[in-house]
Design goal:
Helix content is about 20%, strand content about 35%. The structure holds 2-acetamido-2-deoxy-beta-D-glucopyranose (3 copies). This is RlpA-like protein double-psi beta-barrel domain-containing protein.
């Protein structure tokens, strides 16, 4: 029954991709019209991931608006702060495990003037 087993494998790979924890650098990203097709602002809690993470998410296809990752969030933990933000965009030039947060969300971790926060732990949920 090849169709049943390939469905099973697809489901298994999806849950692995969504549950994996990464370590990367947090940066302040300025939302606008993003790859998911939403228009967001710096005062909304939203996130971006690298193009590698975005484009390798299970179910990703040619139209980024239809990428299933657009229905997911990132949960970021650092120094006792734990924040969840919906994924709305990707960053074309970022290292694979960097995560962007809108200003309002970034400021839960550090002042905007810090620019980045190294070594944050995050996962897609
Ligand atoms: C992002 O923008 C879309 C509309 O384009 C809106 O539906 C969604 O609620 C916004 N996200 C947040 C976290 O405000
Ligand atoms: C952050 O919150 C999420 C969702 O509530 C939880 O699953 C996770 O364990 C928390 N992480 C830390 C480090 O507290
Ligand atoms: C990153 O975090 C790990 C685990 O908490 C720690 O061992 C390491 O020293 C940290 N690296 C930096 C550059 O802060």
């Amino acid at each position: 029954m090849p169709s049943v087993s390939s469905l099973f494998v697809t489901a298994l790979l999806s849950s692995i991709a969504a549950a994996q924890t990464h370590t990367g650098t947090l940066f302040n990203f300025v939302p606008g019209l993003g790859a998911c097709g939403f228009t967001n602002t710096s005062s909304q809690t939203v996130a971006s991931v690298s193009s590698q993470v975005f484009n390798s998410f299970p179910g990703a296809g040619p139209n980024p608006n239809n990428n299933p990752i657009c229905k997911h969030s990132v949960t970021i933990s650092h120094n006792g702060v734990n924040l969840t933000a919906p994924i709305v965009d990707f960053c074309a030039q970022c290292p694979q495990f960097n995560v962007g947060l809108s200003a309002v969300a970034f400021q839960k971790f550090a002042p905007l003037s810090d620019g980045i926060v190294p070594n944050v732990t995050w996962e897609i949920v």
